[in-house]
């Protein structure tokens, strides 16, 4: 090693080591690839999700101004604060041949506010032309082509024939289909002509604003053009996007966990490699290699492996990310995420090899000659007599290699805990309960008035409809008489306007009864139900009222309550009880609560039933027949509508499938990571102990006894891993589900220990090492005993 050759010799020796132990190099590269591909894939999926979300936000309105006049729309369209204005209106929902649909007018736009663009045909221009989804035509049993005629009754007592001039291919089933009509129909058609327009608005440069600034611009536009506050509907998704989100933080935490797991695995690999090459390292020291050069050699082995593994991992991770999330995938993000993942991957490898490299550099030639592959800390006490069996030899091997075993167990357990966390999340998700959250919590059908805030909004909500009293006892009896209907609940509330100066809040008014009195009182943050009297109110979710309508309601606050009972009435009321947020259990809804007696006085003789809530006996079995029977009854009630749990499940299916697919993919990736780590550990251990097995065989040990000894060693390695996975993984899964329930409102999640998944994992951890052990031992035995005894790494 003369001076001219000194600089390159470390690289050559490092390369020679890697080429000389191809199996070790292969599994080290594989581990780095898995870690880097996982972190780069996760980062790219998250970035693609954010970009897709931004693309959606860039193609939709920031705010809706409802019930606007032509003059107001013209002013909004020409205002400098407005980027684009799109008018729209929609009619009431109808049912034709069992399929729900509604007339919908909106201009066709492919940019700004993206609405719809027919994939086949043209946008409607004539009064009788429409654009529909291909799925709608399929559901109606009609020909899926332009020119098809549909006879629809959008207006009561009037059937009209429409011609399909355009078709949309959205390739998904919907509970209710929009039927896109022309402007001529929106102006002249009986179903839409009396419905006011809603203006969809994008605010100029809104993406650069703070949330408070954005709200100020929206409200200033409303004031400028004489639009009432209750006619303003801000896009909550866009408004929330103006806040800092925690997605990057979550990704960072997940990334750190993955990189830590990879670091433990890589450290374990290099530690086993270094301890298996102590004698070789000592020989290098005897021919003049310095501690610094030995240290560099190990580091350069890590860099050489990283140069292959990191680019491959980045490529695999981004390909997977594209397959999972193609919509938001962008080349600019790819390079940024690839650079970040590469840096993290290389730093992880360098950090992982630091201690093994230092340990290798500290080995003296004398120590290397005497080294027999044992951990000093694991030496056993001498015993005068020892019974030599496969089990005791396995135990002795475990004690001598305690540190190696701890590293292997730790690296395997990390993957196991992550796997169990993902499995717990999957098993905790109750799709039925997810769909039941909200309106269908305790029932499967809701019979209510055909009322929509956009299509037939009234100042006093559903009060005008309730004046007709359609939801009466006679209808309730008809519903109760349907076979297998368990019960029909009566939901009682009406609507009124709460006014504070020039600000108005139209909300639901509920009676305080003997049934809900105690529960309401327990929920209040301030005040008491006992203080309720003639002109006093209790308000639930005052924070929402304040944020949406700028009306601050607290104990002692006075406001004007305005209602309609055939004529407009009003009185001054005082707030005597408040709950700042909504009831998480939804036992009590948001709104205004007044004494039951006072409610009867305010709406004398009016049927205040807002809906009938129908629950079935054995819904899975009888659901379809009950739904058909309700629809048959409602054919005689044109002002009533039926909402069903079945339709809600259809609308939720795409979202739940998407979330669970992503979690399932991540969980599978983690278990593959753990399995490859285990395979790597087993093969590395078998290769390093090749000479040891030959020595045992030379003193009379049979191959079946060696195999039995290795079987016990695998048991000793697998049991601690399974125990940690069982306990720590179970606790991590429980904690994840508990956190989602408590802080994310995921009441549809219930922890269930994933016993089947843990069983599969345990079998993999037991059977795969045994299979590898058997195959490796058979391959080693192909060489002669003398060759194996003289084997050096």
Entry summary:
The chain is an alpha+beta fold and 793 residues long. It contains 26 helices and 22 strands. The longest helix has 44 residues, at 645-688.
Beta fraction: 15-25%
Fraction of helical residues: 40-55%
Shape: elongated
Kindly state the mean pLDDT as a whole number? 80
Distance between the termini: 22 Å
Low confidence ranges: 372-380, 453-457
Radius of gyration using CA atoms only: 36 Å
Main sheet makeup:
11 strands, mixed
* Count, helices: 26
Judged by helices, strands and strand pairing, the structural class is alpha+beta
Q: How many strands in all? A: 22
Keywords: Cell membrane, Membrane, Transmembrane, Transmembrane helix
Subcellular location: Cell membrane
Domain ABC3 transporter permease C-terminal: 253-352, 666-780
InterPro entries: ABC3_permease_C, Macrolide_Exporter_MacB
Overview of the structural elements:
The structure is a single chain. Helix 2 runs antiparallel to helix 8 and helix 2 packs across helix 10. The chain is of the alpha+beta class and 793 residues long. The longest helix has 44 residues.
């Amino acid at each position: 090693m003369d001076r001219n050759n000194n600089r390159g010799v470390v690289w050559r020796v490092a390369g020679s080591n890697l080429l000389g132990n191809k199996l070790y190099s292969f599994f080290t590269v594989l581990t780095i690839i898995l870690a880097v591909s996982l972190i780069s894939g996760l980062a790219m999926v998250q970035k693609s999700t954010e970009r897709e979300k931004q693309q959606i936000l860039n193609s939709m309105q920031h705010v809706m101004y409802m019930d606007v006049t032509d003059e107001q729309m013209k002013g909004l369209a020409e205002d400098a604060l407005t980027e684009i204005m799109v008018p729209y209106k929609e009619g009431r929902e109808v049912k034709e041949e069992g399929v729900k649909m509604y007339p919908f007018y909106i201009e066709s736009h492919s940019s700004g506010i993206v609405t719809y663009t027919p994939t086949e045909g043209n946008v409607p221009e004539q009064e009788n032309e429409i654009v529909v989804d291909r799925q709608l035509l399929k559901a109606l049993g009609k020909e899926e082509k332009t020119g098809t005629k549909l006879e629809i009754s959008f207006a009561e007592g009037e059937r009209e024939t429409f011609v399909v001039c355009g078709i949309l291919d959205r390739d998904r089933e919907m509970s209710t289909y929009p039927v896109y009509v022309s402007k001529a129909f929106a102006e002249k058609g009986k179903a839409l002509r009396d419905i006011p327009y809603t203006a969809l608005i994008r605010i100029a440069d809104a993406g650069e604003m703070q949330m408070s600034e954005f709200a100020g611009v929206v409200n200033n536009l409303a004031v400028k053009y004489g639009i009432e506050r209750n006619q303003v509907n801000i896009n909550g998704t866009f408004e929330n996007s103006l806040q800092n989100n925690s997605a990057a933080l979550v990704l960072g935490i997940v990334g750190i966990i993955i990189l830590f797991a990879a670091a433990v695995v890589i450290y374990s690999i290099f530690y086993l490699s270094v301890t298996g090459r102590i004698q070789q390292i000592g020989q290098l020291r005897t021919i003049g290699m310095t501690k610094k050069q030995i240290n560099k050699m190990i580091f350069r082995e890590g860099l050489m492996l990283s140069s292959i593994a990191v680019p491959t991992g980045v490529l695999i991770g981004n390909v997977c990310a594209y397959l999972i999330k193609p919509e938001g995938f962008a080349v600019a993000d790819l390079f940024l995420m690839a650079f970040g993942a590469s840096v993290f991957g290389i730093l992880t490898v360098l950090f992982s090899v630091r201690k093994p490299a230092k340990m290798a550099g500290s080995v003296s030639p004398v120590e290397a000659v005497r080294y027999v592959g044992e951990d000093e800390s694991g030496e056993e006490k001498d015993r005068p007599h020892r019974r030599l069996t496969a089990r005791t030899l396995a135990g002795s091997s475990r004690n001598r290699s305690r540190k190696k075993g701890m590293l292997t167990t730790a690296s395997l357990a990390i993957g196991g805990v992550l796997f169990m966390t993902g499995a717990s999340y999957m098993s905790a998700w109750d799709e039925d309960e997810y769909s039941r959250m909200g309106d269908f919590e305790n029932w499967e059908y809701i019979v209510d008035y055909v009322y929509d805030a956009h299509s037939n909004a009234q100042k006093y909500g559903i009060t005008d409809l309730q004046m007709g009293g359609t939801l009466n006892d006679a209808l309730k009896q008809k519903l109760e008489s349907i076979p297998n209907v368990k019960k029909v609940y009566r939901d009682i509330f009406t609507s009124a306007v709460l006014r504070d100066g020039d600000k108005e809040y139209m909300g639901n008014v509920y009676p305080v009864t003997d049934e809900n009195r105690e529960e309401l009182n327990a929920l209040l943050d301030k005040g008491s139900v006992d203080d309720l009297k003639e002109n006093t109110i209790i308000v639930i979710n005052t924070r929402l009222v304040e944020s949406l309508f700028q009306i601050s309601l607290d104990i002692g606050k006075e406001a004007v309550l305005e209602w309609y009972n055939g004529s407009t009435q009003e009185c001054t009321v005082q707030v005597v009880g408040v709950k700042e947020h909504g009831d998480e259990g939804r036992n009590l809804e948001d709104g205004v609560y007044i004494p039951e007696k006072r409610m009867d006085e305010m709406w004398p003789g009016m049927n205040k039933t807002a809906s009938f809530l129908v629950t079935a006996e054995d819904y899975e079995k009888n659901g379809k027949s009950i739904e058909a029977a309700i629809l048959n009854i409602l054919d005689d009630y044109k002002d009533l509508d039926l909402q069903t749990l079945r339709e809600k499940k259809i609308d939720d299916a795409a979202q739940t499938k998407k979330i669970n697919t992503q979690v399932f993919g991540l969980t599978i990736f983690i278990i593959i990571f753990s399995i490859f780590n285990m395979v790597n550990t087993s093969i590395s251990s078998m290769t390093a102990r090749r000479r040891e097995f030959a020595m045992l065989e030379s003193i009379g040990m049979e191959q079946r006894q060696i195999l039995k000894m290795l079987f016990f060693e695998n048991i000793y390695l697998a049991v601690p891993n399974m125990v940690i996975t069982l306990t720590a993984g179970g606790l991590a899964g429980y904690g994840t589900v508990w956190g989602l329930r408590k802080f994310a409102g995921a009441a549809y999640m219930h922890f269930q220990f994933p016993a089947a998944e843990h069983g599969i994992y345990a079998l993999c951890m037991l059977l795969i090492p045994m299979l590898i052990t058997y195959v490796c031992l058979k391959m080693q035995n192909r060489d002669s005993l003398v060759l194996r005894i003289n084997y050096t790494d």
